[in-house]
Design goal:
By secondary structure, the chain is an all-alpha fold. The protein has helices at about 1-30, 35-55, 60-80, 90-110. It is built from four helices and no strands. The longest helix has about 30 residues, at about 1-30.
Amino acid sequence: MKLRTTLTAVSASLLALCSATVFAQAAAPAASAATPRVDQRQENQAQRIEQGKASGQLTQREAHRLNHQQKAVARAETKAKADGTVTPQERKRLHKMQDNTSQNIRQQKHDHQTRPASAPAAGK
């Protein structure tokens, strides 16, 4: 009777160990596909665009172009995550795209083109 209890305990331990291993392997690709820095930058840049629209530093056309660039980065991020892993090369490409968008936001906000005072901001 004691042997049967020991075998049952060992079997249960092995089953738990195998389950934990399978779970850890399934969770690993999801972690390597995470792009929190990219996501945070996207959010920051979207806020910069909105602030530029609200202040009149960005024209409607400029804001539209910048939002289009933001969407291109989001599409590239989705494509990079599609296989469950974002490679260093994919991550580098995403950061370069965001660098370009950030530079464009700065240039457009400081190019002395302004929305006419009588034109309301979009979405307001």
